[in-house]
Amino acid sequence: MDIRFGADYYPEHWDEKRHETDAKLMHEIGIDVVRMAEFAWSKLELENGVFRFEWLDNVINILANYNIRVVLGTPSAAPPAWLIDEIPDLLPVDSQGRTRGFGGRHHNCHSNSAFREHIKRLVSKMAHHYKNNPNVIGWQIDNELGNSHNDLCHCKSCRRRFQKWLESKYKTIDELNREWGTSFWSQTYDRFEQIPTPMITPNSHNPSLLLDWKRFHSDLIVKFQQFQIDIIRQICPNHFITHNLMGFFNLVDYFDLTENLDFVSHDQYPMGFFDNPQPMKEPSVLAADLDLMRSLKNKTFWIMEQQAGPTGWEILGRTPKPGQLRLWSAQSVAHGADTVVYFRWRTCAFGTEEYWHGILPHSGNPGRRYYELQKFISEIKPYMEKFKDSLPESEAAILFSYEQSWAFEIQPHHPELNYIDYVRNFHRGLYNQNIPVDFISEKGDFERYKLVIAPLLFLVSDELVEKLTRYVVQGGILVLTMRSGVKDMNNKCHIESELPGKLTELTGAVITDYDCLRDQDIGIRYNGKDYRCRIWCDILKPVSAECIGTYTDDCYRDEPAITVNHVGNGRVYYIGTEPGQKLIDDFLSDIVNAAGIERIYDKPAEVEFVRRRTKDADYIFALNHTDRPQTIAIAENWKRLVNNENLEPFGYALFVADRPDSP
Ligand code: GAL
Ligand code: ZN
């Protein structure tokens, strides 16, 4: 993959006389790629069938003079007003039956066939127009697919499509009735045409319908992207195609969405969005986002939007401190980004995002942010060439499942149980020990790892159980948790045996009772130490397993809380609660030591260590996310490439070491 730095550029917002200055300033900061046009439909197709590409051609030519290449976005996230006039039912409908109006973006239904015809015509025109332009290198489909589509779309077309989707899944209505358990509350359907989308009802919908709705919706968006991929692949076989994702955003299954892309792109905004109080995302949460992005295709990726200044729409965020933009960029590279594109080039003077700051301020004059990034790009780029395409080579993986996340959104059990946070806690347990970690899906290759953590494996299929069993029998270490094996894939409870149902052979322990800890936490003693745990408590009865942690409170005192079971050459741990970070850290540390999993840096330090591992060397990043200087003790074989072991506040350093296993 190419090593590049770039900016998201909106030449349509500026007088064309400015474009040359922009290109020159971009070149001087080290930018050699821009993304453009992903919201420019009304400039590219002035009215129905009237296309104008000259303005974009001119910009591309100016950029080319400065050796800056172009990624074009297909503008389907911003259908223009004339198109809404033409297809009024393109506007999406929410679960209360309200049509969402024109005026923002993403005001579209993904199933509307007239909309697809318009996209097909525009995207084909663009693709033909740019297929031989040597300065255009690739495409981004749409923009952050699924973003803004929460609670959408319940229009007639989507309902019909949902019914068809169900029909192709269940074949007969009797089968659907059985699999959804519609005998409950007299919900039996006679025909697929009767099935609603989950619009508001006097009370909750059937959980099986809700899960299928989320799957359908994800599939719809995946297909919407695929339909555009197909057009471009055919016309521009030499261009890459990517899409900009949003970390742990889960409306669309990202494993599916990225399957047919050449590589993943990601939008990284460490200071978060509009929430109040403003969330400065924790470094480990940022790391988890990046690890997921790399893991989707097990491949290096692009950052298509890296925060470049204070964020904000109606409410503004803090201004990044000196060093922070550089630090976050370094973190992205460390976790596997081979190209970093900043959002945006220049802060816009109008529109919803006029306070979402770019590298340049409103005035267009380079300032602190410009010079900080200029220095960073020039110092890091030569080393990126050396480790491009390389991955961390993780020995540990966490199973991340969109379907489990949806099932827990439908039934969180406890008001504070959040699947993604629960998963992130385990990621943080490895992050805290400087252990590289990948995420895998149910379809992933478990055998590549010494340790697989599969939190909250609520819905289980026979295939998954077989796969996990094979992995463990061959020597793998598997960690399972509370609420595993509870349901089948259609979101109905397992009834054939005690929990964890089909996973019982693996756990070697059954759950005899459970308690949703609504109003209290609970103590656990593990390895002679006491911890407080929350949310849930499974009471375990070991059959072949050994108890390694017990509850310490109330009627649960001395009952097993954590077990380990030897299966084949491997072992399976089970934790019957939300263990909390301290217990996760200590528990994983013991497992990691026993499994001989390597830590990149094994002394305590308030610094993140990340590696890119090439054939013969480890490129090691030390990232100081604190506002204080930090000193680290580097190993003798670490050579300093950028900066050194005395890290300034928000500073970073890059070292290289021969691989421990290289001759
Ligand atoms: C991203 C989006 C950009 C821009 C940015 C700032 O989510 O892809 O187009 O809107 O946020 O709001
Ligand atoms: Zn719709």
Q: Any idea how many domains?
A: 3
The CATH H-level superfamily of the largest domain is Glycosidases
Question: Could you name the CATH class of the largest domain?
Answer: Alpha Beta
**Tally of contiguous helical segments:** 17
- The span between the termini is 27 Å
Overall morphology = globular
Tell me what the structure shows.
The protein is α/β, with parallel strands linked by helices and 663 residues long. The protein has 3 domains: 5-146 and 213-384, TIM Barrel, CATH 3.20.20; 396-595, 3-Layer(aba) Sandwich (Rossmann fold); 608-658, Sandwich (Immunoglobulin-like), CATH 2.60.40.1180. The chain contains 17 helices and 28 strands. A 9-stranded parallel sheet has the order 7-6-5-2-1-11-10-9-8. Strands 13-12-14-15-22-21-20-17-18 form a 9-stranded mixed sheet, sandwiched between helices. A hairpin with a 2-residue loop joins β17 (522-526) and β18 (529-533). α11 (324-334) packs parallel to α12. The chain is globular, with a radius of gyration of 26 Å. The model has no long low-confidence stretch (mean pLDDT 97). It binds beta-D-galactopyranose and zinc ion. Beta-D-galactopyranose (GAL) is lined by residues 143-144, 267, 305, 343, 353, 356.
Key terms:
single chain; 663 residues; TIM Barrel; Rossmann fold; Immunoglobulin-like; 3 domains; 9-stranded parallel beta sheet; 9-stranded mixed beta sheet; globular; binds beta-D-galactopyranose; binds zinc ion
